[in-house]
From TrEMBL, chains A, B, C, D:
Gene field: araD
Keyword Metal-binding appears in the UniProt entry: yes
Reactions mediated catalytically: L-ribulose 5-phosphate = D-xylulose 5-phosphate
Class II aldolase/adducin N-terminal domain location: 10-200
Record flagged with keyword Isomerase: yes
Entry keyword set: Carbohydrate metabolism, Isomerase, Metal-binding, Zinc
Name of the protein this chain belongs to: L-ribulose-5-phosphate 4-epimerase
EC number in record: 5.1.3.4
Top enzyme class: isomerase
Length: 233, 233, 233, 233
């Protein structure tokens, strides 16, 4: 196989396998994509294929208007959501969607995840947003495309930037996360799940636990992401 | 061993081992069966045999009146429940019973599992039914046979179809799940356990979390199961 | 090494390793013993030795008056409790003590574990007893010996038989379980932990969940343990 | 590489890998250091390096004033906290910091972990202290250095000895633990996580669960740590 998208498919394949290795999915309840901005396409997991049998060459190449460019299989049923986000958010390189347990539980609760500590603040300074359940007129239309609309509307309503907040919960559904590439999108999915579990436990222990105070939010975020960041190599 | 049921036993064996691999059982707290409609028999796990030592040839062949057709061991103590379901529900091919943790917890709570999100709606559009504890007159009779009666009565009372709702909780006991074959019955047992955990967490986070709205229930189910389904290959 | 207790030590060693394999202990927070009634001795884990380095020949042989009969190492700090139980309960062959998570949580809650379902009833017909915290006069005395006294007092107060109820929680401490041999004691420790988790979840889901009704308790227990039992081979 | 700190780096490396093996960290959310008192330096994990690729020679050697003595990589972003503790607490040999789930949940709850049972009392006789969130004037200054100050202030306020209480929660952040060497610091981090989970469950089961009574606290601690201790070899 001498596809020009060989590397892109491999990036996408590895990221999907990570989803499984990190216990973020059971069966086929998740998918990751990786974009190639130059060619205006992205690679995405085929629909309903088990991780145990998935191979790099099964990955499907799709453009931002949902045309299949390369691949013998049907792409993930969530493909249109990915396409919509790539089309509208020019600086993301990968997207991951899961049904991870604690992330879904918060999504089903229809509540934002409050920022309770520095594990959260090391990654984003806002509560993790939970989009309200989709409006009926959107459900009856082009559902997965409209999930993309739902995500952008939520970010607009809450005045969030997709470059700073790289994750969202869709009410009654589950999480989407993104980042500079597919691996980072998976990383953000895992961070979201860890933070979701910690926030759940925090409220069980102390229903009146306060949000992290602003001075600490700012400090921890700048430590990792500010102009003078000093985390990592 | 040149049994005419060799393939059936192997299907049954593999499904039982999956139960273990998916963390749905400890020790021998579970069993799966696979039916052969043509010959009017089913294969089922022998009673009380540990998964570490279970072999395909240990699987017992039983008919729908609970006569042992082939096998040196005593079949699962729940055999009569399986037989009753196969006899009455002509289109199921496999049945699984477990004592998986979250499924049992809901069964012990004697509550239906509310449909809170799309993970649930991707598989069924109803709350997962919990049959009330068995009536005393049934307990004193043919207990496992009567568990079958209890399941059918619950489906009748709640006006459910076994083709659409492939799982149930028996109050104070635990889950049964079924499907077109043994592997699908195990799959449904895992889905039930995952959905049970998510619903538990949802209510802990938000005791007032609403059921999924009808428009979304319908959409997600049709995406996978409707005439125009577009999930999978 | 040609010890006459070679087989006894191996039984004890295997049971201790099972404790670890079943996720019932971290570090050295647990111990199992196996009795040799003919010689009036039992084999027990040495104190504070990690499972990764434990060897069969490290197991210590002790008599019912806590004299070391064979072995170069100091026996478990809980040895006197084991000795007291073997001395007073003539028909047990093995004892296991753990700090398994859910068992300890109930012990710290100082509550009996209510019988909520058939997973519990398949093993015992009573609530799992939780002994009240030790009286101060007993604590100041021979502590581990007195833990044995505490266990027998609790069984007397609650009118329980050690042959029917093979497990107990010590208030503020943790579980002890026993059985016909060391492997059965470990099995009962795992059953207790599973039942403890299910009961915890049940009460979280439904704080008013009723105890299993008497007719079902009786039925399930007799299925496995009655004169006409029909579970297992 | 013939560094004079070769053994120190290996001790530090092994302890960091243990953190991962004991499920106390995801990704790079933790770090362990090991001190060399004679040379007035300590070895610490480099910042942001994944456990899968970490090698003993990557470990960085730092003195108590945060000067890098040896190593090509940037040390952990928490290095100044480690340095401050080593400088002020003359008798500790290792420090571990994690974002372990239950420990963080209590830290985010801003509550001390009550001593509910003997698992806790076997290790320390006090509630596990939770330092209040850092004062704003400290946050704006030298943050990680000031985390050290925050820890010492909390121990002074609560009149605790670092030799008896080898662990703390930093409000809104997470746990630090220490001990005679790096392995013991990791051990204490695991004990803290186990005790944190048990205490969480205890309060869920019985919100009125009482603290362990003083006589039992004293007894269990002396069993392991008193002049006449009789635990271990």
């Amino acid at each position: 196989m001498s596809s020009k998208y060989k590397l892109l498919k491999e990036e996408c394949y590895e990221a999907n396998m990570q989803l499984n290795a990190l216990n973020l999915v059971v069966y086929t309840f998740g998918n990751v994509s990786a974009v190639d901005r130059e060619n205006g396409v992205f690679a995405i997991k085929p629909s309903g294929v088990a991780y145990e049998v998935l191979k790099p060459e099964d990955i499907v190449i799709v453009d931002f208007d949902n045309n299949i460019i390369e691949g013998a299989m049907r792409p993930s049923s969530d493909t249109k959501t990915h396409a919509y986000l790539y089309k509208n958010w020019a600086e993301i390189g990968g997207i991951a969607h899961t049904h991870a347990t604690y992330s879904v539980a918060w999504a089903q609760s229809q509540l934002d995840i409050p920022i309770f500590g520095t594990t959260h603040a090391d990654h984003l300074t806002a509560d993790i947003p939970c989009a309200p359940p989709m409006r009926d007129d959107l459900i009856e239309g082009n559902y997965e495309h409209n999930t993309g609309i739902q995500i952008l509307e939520c970010f607009k309503d809450k005045q969030l930037s997709y470059k700073e907040v790289e994750m969202i919960l869709i009410g009654n559904h589950g999480p989407f996360a993104w980042g500079k590439n597919a691996a980072k999108a998976v990383y953000n999915s895992k961070v979201l799940e860890v933070v979701a579990e910690m926030a759940y436990l925090t409220r069980q222990i102390n229903p009146n636990a306060p949000r992290l105070k602003d001075s600490l939010i700012k400090k921890h975020y700048e430590r990792k992401h500010g102009a003078n960041s000093y985390y990592g190599q």
